[in-house]
Amino acid sequence: MMTNLGLLIIIGALTACGVYLMLERNLTRMVLGLLLVGNAVNLLILTVGGPSGNPPIIGRQSAGRTTVADPLAQGMILTAIVITMGVAAFTLALIYRMFTLESDDVVDDDAEDARVAQEPPEPVTDDDEDELSGPTDEDSPAELDALPAGEKS
Q: Beta partners for 26?
């Protein structure tokens, strides 16, 4: 089986550009990156699906084709397109909501996360370990053995 090298290069470029855009703080660019990665995955499924051939319908023939095309790849691509469009619509709705609330679609750093990152970690003492252990489990095997014979589950 011969693989089209040009198509694989295009898939790699679409994936790289999509990942770069998804790492941006701007939500509109993130959606564009999501769409690019979705299209790259669709092209990858199409490439891996094998060579083109006759339609997978009994009695239908194509011009000079001897094999039958794999319908699984086509079905997976259609499903991936629907899922990608649904996720994109949901993300665009979130972007619209954020834009109406803040008049900007850039995600800022959370002030509480920045404050926690600046604090030094607290040392763990023996007293803290005792408090973390907490009460014993009521469903442990030792506790279940103490029940009368008729109440065991």
A: 106
Total-model pTM: 0.64
pLDDT tens, position by position, 79-99: 999 999 999 999 999 888 888
Listed residue (85, 55, 86, 87) closest to 70, CA to CA? 55
Name every residue whose Cβ is closer than 8 Å to that of residue 33 and which is 6 or more positions away in sequence.
17, 18, 19, 20, 21, 22, 23, 24
What is the reported pLDDT for 20? 95
Q: What is the DSSP letter of 26?
A: B
- Return the structure tokens found at 5: 């090298």
Cα–Cα nearest to 73, from 101, 47, 106: 47
Cα–Cα distance for residue pair 21/33, rounded to 1 Å? 5
Instruction: Specify the DSSP element, H or E, that contains 69.
Output: none
Residue type, 31: V
Is residue 30 within 8 Å of residue 21, measured between CB atoms?
yes
Q: What span, in angstroms and rounded, lies between the C-alpha atoms of 29 and 17? A: 11
How confident is the model at residue 147, as a pLDDT?
A: 58
Q: What residue ranges of the chain have pLDDT lower than 50? A: none
